[in-house]
Design goal:
2 domains, binds 1,4-dihydronicotinamide adenine dinucleotide, alpha/beta, Redox-sensing transcriptional repressor Rex, NAD, transcription, Rossmann fold, two-stranded antiparallel ribbon, CoA-bd, Arc Repressor Mutant, subunit A
């Protein structure tokens, strides 16, 4: 089966497998059966087998999964085996908080942070100096950057995203609360913490009315 046919629901579940397998590795667990993994992850063993069969299985009858191998393979499927240099546009509260976080461990290295506020120029966040946006185009070209994080005010987000596209950015991790209209060549992943909070609010309001299912666990 080609990767193009993999459902987005399966892709969304892969990071959770990756995280659990990483924890098992840290605890020196060498192999695990789909049953044991299913108990830990609170999903059914058949769901795990079905998900992993999309990529050729990885398990062996009677042995289960080799934790390190499966962790590495899922990492490769997710593209985490190569380092991606990343830039952050908008060095305010959120931009700086993200710049301070260690995304290197999953292969994303922040090498540039940009803003329009001259008071921020030269300020280092986790060793990376904030630069003014007028150097952005050249920086993207010089460093062959393909991934940008967008943490600018909503009003500026669309036009900046368009510019980033023309300068060669191919993936945008968008935190601005607006939909970006870009060509299909650019992958956009929107992150909206308040939407997550709204669903938490819903769950709180409706708590006890519905059983918390395996399915909702996996959709988190
Ligand atoms: P902030 O005001 O602290 O930071 C915004 C920064 O963007 C400022 O430093 C400003 O100078 C800079 N900026 C403005 N225009 C720019 C441009 N043309 N080029 C480069 N930089 C520019 O705001 P905060 O709290 O950091 O929020 C940033 C964005 O993230 C906002 O759109 C906000 O709504 C959004 N946000 C999203 C969240 C989410 O869960 N998706 C959570 C919190 C904020």
């Amino acid at each position: 089966m080609s990767e193009r046919e993999i459902s987005s629901a399966v892709i969304r579940r892969l990071p959770r497998y990756y995280r659990y397998l990483g924890e098992l590795l840290e605890n020196n667990v060498v192999r695990i059966s789909s049953k044991e993994l299913s108990i830990r992850m609170k999903v059914t063993a058949s769901q795990i087998r079905q998900d992993l069969n999309n990529f050729g299985g990885f398990g062996q009858q009677g042995y289960g999964y080799n934790v390190e191998y499966l962790h590495d393979e899922i990492g490769k499927i997710l593209g985490l085996d190569a380092t991606q240099n990343m830039i952050i546009i908008g060095a305010g509260n959120l931009g700086q908080a993200l710049a301070n976080y260690d995304f290197d461990r999953i292969g994303f290295k922040v090498i540039g942070i940009f803003d329009i506020n001259p008071r921020l120029e030269g300020l280092a966040v986790r060793g990376v100096e904030i630069q003014m946006v007028d150097t952005l185009e050249q920086f993207i070209k010089d460093h062959e950057i393909h991934v940008a994080t967008l943490t600018v005010p909503k009003k500026q987000a669309r036009s900046i995203a368009k510019q980033l596209e023309t300068w060669g950015i191919r993936a945008i991790w968008n935190f601005a609360p607006t939909d970006l209209h870009l060509s299909e060549d650019v992958c956009v992943k929107n992150v909206h913490l308040d939407e997550s909070l709204m669903t938490l609010s819903y769950n709180l309001r409706h708590r006890g009315k519905e059983k918390y299912s395996y399915k909702s666990y996996m959709e988190d």
